[in-house]
Fold this sequence. Notes:
Layout (H helix, E strand, L loop, with lengths): L1 H6 L2 H24 L10 H48 L6 H21 L4 H27 L5 H23 L4 H23 L6 H21 L12 H10 L2
Amino acid sequence: MRGIINQTDPLMIALACAAAMLLAWGIGWRQGRRLPPETGEDPAVKFTDASLALLGLLLAFTFSMSLARHDQRRATVVADSNAVGDFYTCASLLKQPSRSRLQAIIREYAQHKLDAGRQVLSEEDLQKALKRFQDLHDRMTTTVDEAILEGTPIALSLTSTLNNVTSSNASYLAAYRERLPWTIVLLLFLGAVVPALLVGLKQGASPRPHVVGTVCFIILVAFVIYVTLDLNQPDTGAIRVSKEPFERLLQSMEK
């Protein structure tokens, strides 16, 4: 279920939710038309108000979670870029030929990071990219080990910056793969449909159906759900984390 939700276009999910809400409202309105006219305050109004309040809480809760994950991904991109830049600066203090060899590997690593971030990767492509990253890490580790054996005076700094590159890459990968639990997405979907049904039921029992207000409400809820799910899919969504830090890093490496 989680894989299906994560691979589905957020716009399609939002449209499906809007259609389900409209259908539920229509069913509720038809059932409400069969009810006797209201006389006084109906206790069922409290359930309708409570369901709408719960919907508002669910929308705010899920949107906050998705936005926090988006900000986390953006922070990890900056941290990852800074770690690679620090390692490149430290490598520039080595003697030849270790300096040129290690800097070439770091440039290749940064370019691969940028290319992978710009593409929509399937699970198979992601595994290939991770294997490429691991190969580059192994090459960097081998080159650093050779520089240390040669007696470089910056062995401690070189090792520390290499460890930071590895750690920042792990943090970036964890943030990249983090998604909303599918149970929360399902709860959000149900939390939008049930209030629409109750609203339709109440409007069906009243003389006027308030179609325009209902449609505007459904559109607004569907748009919030779309933005929430779009933030939840960083590789396929319209709202994506900028890779500008790696672009600027590669430009500085070419100087």
